[in-house]
Amino acid sequence: MPQPAALLPQAPAAPGRVTCLDGLRGVAACAVVAFHFFYAFTPGRFADKARTSFSLFDTPLAVFWNGHFAVAVFFVLSGFVLAASAPTGPRAAPLAIGLRYLRLGVPALASSILAWAWLTGFPDAARDAQAISASPWFRWTYQPPIPPLGQAIWEGAVGVFLNGTTRFNNPLWTMQAEFLGSILIYGSYAVLKGRARPLAMAAGLVGFAALGLFYLSAFCGGALVHEARGRLRDHATGGTAAGIAGLVLGATMPGHAGGDGLLPTLASWLGADGARQAGAILTLIAVLITPPVRRFFETAPLQRLGELSFPIYLVHVPLIVAPASAIFAAFAPLSPVALAGLFIATGLATLALGQLFLVTVERPLLAALRAVRKRGRARRLAAS
Asked: How many CB atoms lie within 10 A of CB 97?
């Protein structure tokens, strides 16, 4: 499975939208960009079991570049929002699931075509950068000869949902997980009512974790938080404690080597699957019940990042493996200052290209899906 890439698309908005979660999603998107950029060009500390000494990677500060944790947060957020927008009965479920596929598949297709164009324009960039940085992350990107456009279209629209991977735009591996999580939540909510829903989500949270399907456990955890939202009350102290616990459990970068003694063993467990998803659930709860934190994520800049989150997710890796890699290879070795400058330039380019994607793909698609959903709802009412 490719390295986490990040930001997953949000489900259709429901009445009473929780806007602070949009800000959280935007911040996580930025962490994902940092994760992929530095894993590509400074891979040493990102490799599995590579760290033996204590560093910032072993602290909650790693949340700013921990793409693994960001993916867990995105799955938990998806579970929460999908539960809020779930169909009210079996008759509505097929349309909801079909629209969900389009919500994921159309942008995935557009991003796959975009990635093909970047790779075709810079066919040797990823290979040259990998030769210098020796990053294993580049193995998830096509090397020359670049496959034809038809294959990019197939993988973006269908292949990623069947195989869970593509080497045109490796973040699309999450599309399969996202669609399966959507079927899980929408299907469950279509047939279950009342108290059966939280009981089913609690069972899924534990059961899928026991089976090692932690991504589905994260979806159930997010839906369970949604079910409990009416009982959650603002509590700054409790929310702060939950947030700290969540970041310690999940935001700590995985990959610390285990060893003798309690502390090395604990360090090797933090941030791994299971702990990561538990930390993401606690982080969601913390944001919901801690007023200062909630207000921070509701600020205008973070709301703007939230709106751009899915486009950022879709466009940032093609920029890294094509033009950024070409610059890295042409001017290597880069000083820390030069590498920081390349990171800033890549980030700004990601925002600019993300804005273009938002206007040309994201917003028109959302408008079309809303119209289809409204028409389907009207037909069901007329038939009832």
From this structure: 16
Question: What per-residue string of b and e applies to 218-230 under the rule 16 or more CB within 10 Å gives b?
Answer: bbbbbbbbbbebe
The pair phi, psi for residue 54, each rounded to 5°, is -75, 140
Q: What is the pLDDT of residues 160-186, one digit of tens each?
A: 999 999 999 999 999 999 999 999 999
- How far is Cα 147 from Cα 142, in angstroms, rounded to an integer? 8
Distance in angstroms (rounded) separating the CA atoms of residues 151 and 112 = 9
Write out the DSSP string of 278-333.
Answer: HHHHHHHHHHHH-HHHHHHHTSHHHHHHHHHHHHHHHHHHHHIIIIIHHHHHHHPS
**Nearest by Cα to 370 from 170, 32, 103, 71:** 103
pTM of the complete model: 0.92
Q: CA-CA distance, 60 to 195, in Å (whole number)?
A: 36
**The residue to which tokens 């297709």 are assigned:** 109
> pLDDT of 267-323, one tens digit each?
888 889 999 999 999 999 999 999 999 999 999 999 999 999 999 999 999 999 999
The tokens describing 377, both together, are 């709802």
Cβ 44 vs Cβ 188: under 8 Å: no
CA-CA distance, 7 to 31, in Å (whole number)?
A: 10
